[in-house]
């Protein structure tokens, strides 16, 4: 079975119930290394999970703001997630606008490609820096909880992916005749 947003949501709220709004923030902060979803996609998936009785919610009244729902995973949701974890699957295909653009790069001037590659290069460097900042927070904890150990492992995968994209962008720019002038030492920390 392929990864789907409902499983990502179940995983995100298994250990910490939250509102849809908080879930969107959590997605943008903690699972961005391996999954992304829009606000609208998350709320649609939450509604689907409610229909399947895999999440439930408690309505919390708020003053001067709309009431909110705090979602928790039900036993049915936990069983679905456990079953999904045990499934073997194929490697998910890479989805990259950059690779599509590059596959037809011959129809634009090389300078256009180099500018595009540089934008992606800078974005990957920024994302790596962000992930490494979070990684340093984990390093400050003398002994990680079991939950934190698994969160850390997913973060490490995100760091490795960013390092690979950075190295590939450097290679591609060099191949197109513009080596990256200042190479920062690649580290996995």
Give a brief description.
This protein is mainly alpha-helical and 189 residues long.
The strand line-up of the biggest sheet is 1-2
In the residues, how many domains can be counted?
A: 2
Instruction: Count all strands and give the number.
Output: 2
How much strand? 5-15%
Helix content: 55-70%
Distance between the termini: 32 Å
- Mean pLDDT, to the nearest integer, reads 86
3D structure, described in words:
- The protein has 189 residues and is mostly helical.
- It folds into 2 domains: 5-86, Orthogonal Bundle (Arc Repressor Mutant, subunit A), CATH 1.10.10; 97-175.
- Helices cover 60% and strands 6% of the residues.
- It is built from 7 helices and 2 strands; from the N terminus they run H-H-H-E-E-H-H-H-H.
- The chain has a two-stranded antiparallel sheet with strand order 1-2.
- Strand 1 and strand 2 form a beta hairpin.
- The two termini are 32 Å apart.
- 15% of the residues are buried.
């Amino acid at each position: 079975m392929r990864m789907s947003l409902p499983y990502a949501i179940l995983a995100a709220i298994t250990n910490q119930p939250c509102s849809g709004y908080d879930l969107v923030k959590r997605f943008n902060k903690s699972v961005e290394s391996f999954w992304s979803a829009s606000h609208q996609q998350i709320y649609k998936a939450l509604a689907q999970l409610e229909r399947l009785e895999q999440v439930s919610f408690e309505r919390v009244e708020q003053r001067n703001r709309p009431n909110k729902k705090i979602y928790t995973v039900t036993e049915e949701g936990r069983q679905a997630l456990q079953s999904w974890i045990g499934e073997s699957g194929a490697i998910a295909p890479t989805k990259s606008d950059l690779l599509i653009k590059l596959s037809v790069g011959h129809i634009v001037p090389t300078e256009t490609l180099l500018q595009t590659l540089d934008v992606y290069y800078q974005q990957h460097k920024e994302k790596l820096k962000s992930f490494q900042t979070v990684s340093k927070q984990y390093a400050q904890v003398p002994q990680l909880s079991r939950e934190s150990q698994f969160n850390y492992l997913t973060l490490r995968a995100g760091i490795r992916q960013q390092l690979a994209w950075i190295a590939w962008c450097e290679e591609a720019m060099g191949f197109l005749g513009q080596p990256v002038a200042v190479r920062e030492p690649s580290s996995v920390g």
